[in-house]
Amino acid sequence: MLKGIDPKLNADVLRALRAMGHGDDLIIADTNFPSDSVARETVLGKVLRIDASAAEVVKAVLSVYPLDTFVDDAVARMEIVGSPDEVPPVQAEVQAEIDAAEGKPWPMISIERYAFYERAKKAYCVIQTGERRFYGCFAFRKGVIPPDA
Predict the structure, then answer these.
(1) What is the DSSP string of 71-83?
(2) What keywords appear on the UniProt entry (predicted)?
(3) Longest Cα–Cα distance in the chain
(4) What is the number of domains present in the chain?
């Protein structure tokens, strides 16, 4: 255990988050996402796991992970097939955690399912959560921490 670090952030996850650089993507995915096969194509090459809900994992990750302020697609969600504008409860919960972490409303774009898979394959890594609800899949682009922060 470490002081000030959410215990959900295991050593493998912390190592990956620390290794990522500005502009790298992190995928946080539900239990139905093809995490293992997609993760094999990422920079890290293997799936990481945190057995908690998507919102809990996002809260833990965003406690140490800066979001990219230079792009419009720093946070993305997988669209519901056939209903791209619908925001299910799992996505609303994650949006609330993002807004809380940033201290302000933060835009989340939506990405069509197969386009999301393609973005995920180009990511640095995939964290598979214990989220069992559908469409609990998100992409987060890493930002920077200024020298004075």
Answers:
(1) -S-SEEEEPBTTB
(2) Isomerase
(3) 46
(4) 1
Question: What is the average pLDDT score of the chain?
Answer: 97
Q: Which amino acids are annotated catalytic? A: 22, 68, 117
Among 120, 109, 8, 106, CA closest to 64: 8
CATH number for the domain that contains residue 133: 3.40.1650.10
Domain range for 113: 11-141
CB 87 within 8 A of CB 52: no
Q: Is residue 5 part of a domain?
A: no
Q: Is the pLDDT of residue 42 over 80?
A: yes
93-134 residue pLDDT tens: 999 999 999 999 999 999 999 999 999 999 999 999 999 999
Name the pLDDT band for 52 (thresholds 50, 70, 90). Answer: very high
Contact at 8 Å (CB) between 127 and 33?
no
The pair of structure tokens assigned to 17 is: 């988050």
Rounded to 5°, angle at Cα 21 from 31 and 6: 50
